[in-house]
Amino acid sequence: MTQIAQYYQISRTFLYQLIFMANLQLEILFSDEKLLFQKDYRHFEHLLLLLRLEGNCSLLSIASILNALQYHPNSVGYLSQFFQSAGQTLPSTLLMPSKTWVFYLSDEIFAIHTPILVTIDARSTTILNIELASDRSAETWQAHFEALANHHFVSLGMASDRGTGLVAGYQAACDLALWVADYFHEFQDLFALRHQWERKAYAAMTKEYEAARTFTNAKSEASLQKRLKQYDTAHATCDQAIALYDQLDVLLHWLRETLHVCSPHGHLRTPDHVRSELTLLFDMIEALDCAAIAQTLKPIRTHLNDLLVPFQQVEVIAAELRAVVPHDALDFLVLAWHHEHLSDQARSKQKGYHQREGEFCLACADGLLGDTFAPLKMLVFDKLDSIVRASSLVEMVNSLIRPYLNSCKGQITQETLNLIMFYHNHRRYKSGKRKGKAPIELLTGKPLDAPWWELLLQQVQTAQGITRGASPSRPPLYLVVNHEGKTDHQAMAPGQAIGGLTEASEHQGRQRDAAAA
Fold it and tell me: Considering the entire predicted model, what is its pTM?
């Protein structure tokens, strides 16, 4: 193919077009059995999109599948051009018709050494902006957030890790909005230390068991005394390791409960109350007297004010709700929301417990509120859902992107990112509390009227100026023979080239029929 293209000074893309048209005409003229994609090319395009995005297949895998099913064209070059052409028509930044208030969750993911900047909406999980950047400096992130502002997004705040460029860029672009430190990243080292101590405790238990086994095998008195001392030493070390782990585990459990929005009785926590509890817990953890503990706690203590930012929002929401909802009923509704929130994260046994507790709290609130139960429940749940304490949802988007990076060995393009963004925003969740809803539906409140692959093709065809039911999209090159008999390459809307060739072929056929008559 390359030699033919070089000899005739044409592109390989155009050569593939000619082969496609030749196969199509031969199939029409000489075969009774038409391939599926020739009868319904739209179905063929659906298959390509589903294999690439839903099935997460690499281009090589898709080519193999098409070849096995005898679909043509099935070359990797054609597939690459198809997805690139589709991705070029899709935006990297979502555009809203009017101002939309959202809470940003932002993060970075790397394709080899190239950063990908991602920002999603905290409530709907819609990807708002995804871009392949040259670096992750403050200027790059500032331009990222300014692009969102130009597309009618207004930031209520942002939750993220402490990436220097990320935080500085956001504060430069949205200087009045609040920034929330991600709890997962803040306490990651502390919880990693707990896992380390757990492994040490199990290792000490193994050594104690081994010392006990060797003691029982001793024969002489001297050997018995020697191995008894070894066992006593191993036993003391094991007790100390288990005690350290147990104490840290209990304190971290209390730490996790302290960071909950409400107390076990349903009272919404205040910043001052959380500050005092956190300070006490940090002192108790540091009292374990370990160098690793002191080193790990030092940066957390300096970030204490950042940890309290969500509770400032909780305090404002609590004042608003107390003005509308009776206090006793409010406590039950808050507890019901709390258990529903925990049930989404819990395993099967704990999930059942939280569901039962939540139903009990809702029944109590229903008895206290009567006819106003439904609207007040919706108000309380909606207010509490707006509280953002972590950016963990953006990690879910990162996990969506990662397999595509692996399948293309890190060589990802902006066009592929655009396709991933459209796919994520328009696919419906299959499980969880968002089951049956697409992120874009949750953001706009408007239901989608077609599956994501139909909507993607509609948008691609609209951007390319192709009417519904026209020939499939093709690389925008075709061959024109001028009056000097030379070839000339000209740009043309995808689909028009094939359509023009088909119409010309049909016109020539009609002329031959007329001459024969």
Answer: 0.75
